[in-house]
Automatic annotation (TrEMBL):
One Pfam family in the UniProt entry: MTS
Domain Methyltransferase small: 30-112
One GO-annotated biological process of the protein: methylation
Highest taxon listed in the record's lineage: Bacteria
Annotated TM spans: none
Recorded family membership: Belongs to the eukaryotic/archaeal PrmC-related family.
Alphabetical list of InterPro entries matching this protein: DNA_methylase_N6_adenine_CS, Euk-Arch_PrmC-MTase, PrmC-related, SAM-dependent_MTases_sf, Small_mtfrase_dom
Protein name per the record: Methyltransferase domain-containing protein
S-adenosyl-L-methionine found in the keyword field: yes
Organism placement in taxonomy: Bacteria, Bacillati, Actinomycetota, Actinomycetes, Streptosporangiales
Length: 240
């Protein structure tokens, strides 16, 4: 699928395809209701959100980047797909809302830059010293935004610690497991920082690949009380 992707907006790559495939299988096989409400966090060009909309889902997509929001809106518009695209930080634009499915392909590359300070293209990958700055926030907050028996699909690198993701989600009352895996040669970003990551023990000697994983987590514990208001209000909810 050809998508508009201006400079500074994340280009769909292997992790995008991996997540889209996992979503398609979940919608087809897992008893997720027709017209399910789907939330995509970190939509970028909107590729995953568009796939969900084509499957007949009611889709909300969120991104912190104004350029990404405009791009996803345009890609949905030219295809005639009803995707609501909001600008803001993770769950902030959808405070108080719940969804049948949440999908996320957040930044997960370990580095020395504070993700909050990243700008331009770097927003798509900078994720703090262990690559979990956004992963941990999603794991902690997703259950509060899922309908009963709702599903989270989350893609990241195995270098970030798959066990940490599974433990966090299970502690939140979810049944979690790895449902897809793909070995990917390092791209330019990882090649540039491979030596530093190896020095920190995050890579093996001479390692030049990473395993990308999709973790699926299904809510099995009843949620008590209302959905909390999120981590601050979105900076912008109206069209940019």
């Amino acid at each position: 699928m050809m998508l508009l992707r201006p400079p500074g907006v994340y280009r769909p790559q292997s992790d995008t395809s991996l997540l889209t495939g996992a979503l398609s299988r979940a919608l087809a096989r897992a008893g997720i209701p027709a017209g399910a409400r789907v939330l995509e966090l970190g939509t970028g060009s909107g590729a995953v959100a568009l796939a969900a909309a084509r499957a007949g889902c009611e889709v909300v997509a969120v991104d912190v980047s104004a350029s990404a929001v405009l791009t996803a809106r345009m890609n949905a518009l030219v295809r005639g797909l009803p995707v609501r695209v909001l600008r803001g930080d993770l769950f902030a634009p959808v405070a108080g809302e719940v969804f049948d499915v949440i999908v996320a392909n957040p930044p997960y590359v370990a580095g020395d830059i504070d993700p909050a300070a990243a700008r331009g293209r770097a927003r798509a990958w900078e994720a703090g010293p262990d690559g979990r700055a956004l992963l941990d926030r999603i794991c902690a907050r997703a259950p509060q935004h899922l309908a009963p028996s709702g599903t989270l699909l989350l893609v990241h690198s195995a270098l970030n610690g798959v066990a940490a993701t599974l433990v966090s989600l299970r502690a939140s009352g979810m049944r979690a497991s790895v449902v897809a895996r793909h070995r990917e040669p390092f791209g330019p970003v990882m090649r540039r920082r491979a030596a530093r990551l190896a020095a920190r023990g995050l890579l093996g000697p001479g390692q030049r690949h990473e395993d990308l994983v999709v973790v699926r987590a299904d809510l099995i514990a009843a949620r008590t009380g209302p959905v909390e208001g999120g981590e601050g209000r979105a900076r912008e909810h109206q069209p940019a």
